[in-house]
Amino acid sequence: EAEQSVLGALMQDATAAQQIALACEDFHDPAHRAIYRVMQAEIAKRRSVDFLSLYTVMQAAGTVEGVGGMAYLNALEQCVVSPRAIKRHAEIVKERAAQRRLLDAADAACDLAKNVGSVAEKVEKIAALFSAIQRQHVERLPRSISEIATARTAHYQALEDGTAEAGWPTQ
User: Fold this and answer.
1) Which of 13, 49, 104, 150 has a 20 to 30 A CA-CA distance from 38?
2) Is 160 exposed, middle or buried (0-12, 13-18, 19+ CB in 10 A)?
3) Are 20 and 90 in contact (CB under 8 A)?
4) Measured distance between the N- and C-terminal CA atoms of the chain, rounded to whole angstroms
5) 82: phi then psi, degrees, rounded to nearest 5
6) Which distant-in-sequence residues (6+ apart) come within 8 Å of 100 by Cβ?
7) Helical packing angle, 69-78 and 2-12, nearest 10°
8) How far apart are CA 97 and CA 34, in angstroms?
């Protein structure tokens, strides 16, 4: 399982976290989400995330039994021969998460289609569901340096012209 492989690889080499870009929500298994959340926090604090360290942190928080206890944490670390494949396994986790989001949107679209109301209203709501998924997918695609440079240059020009505001958008 790709999720187990990612977690086990991080237990063996926490620096491998720099090679991946996963969110807790990308993990399907709730136990894996919980473990990854703790790993992220520990890595941010520059602490070890081997199975014993994770066990200690999760035991103190009262969450260790909910993820399978020491035996499962140890098994995660032991099931990985080498953390070198973490990037590919993280891509699999991310792809499966995107697939789940797509299926969820399709289910929601079916439910919307069955509801009472105008077809135009339903189509608009369904389109919004799939547009959000498409935006998420496109945002994760690699971009060329020229695309990034063009976008940044246009942004700086808009700042200079006063047609854009500095700072992070809040909506």
Assistant:
1) 104
2) exposed
3) yes
4) 36
5) -150, 140
6) 28
7) 90
8) 16
Nearest-angstrom CA–CA distance, 69 and 171:
40
Label residue 32 by pLDDT band (50, 70, 90).
Answer: very high
Spell out where the chain has E strands: none
pLDDT at 143: 66
By residue count, the chain amounts to 171
Q: Which residues contact 24 (CB under 8 A, 6 or more apart)?
A: 33, 36, 37, 40
**Average of pLDDT values for 22-48?**
95
Which alpha helices (H) appear in 45-118, and where do they start and end? 51-61, 69-78, 86-114
Reported confidence tier of residue 112, pLDDT bands at 50, 70, 90:
very high
DSSP 154: H
Please give the model's pTM, rounded to 2 decimal places.
Answer: 0.73
pLDDT of the residue at 135: 79
pLDDT value at 141 more than 70 = no
Instruction: Check: CB of residue 17 under 8 Å from CB of residue 45.
Output: no
What DSSP letter does each residue of 107-151 carry, written as one string?
HHHHHHHHSSS-HHHHHHHHHHHHHHHHHHHHHHS---HHHHHHH
Quick one: tokens of 94?
């991310």
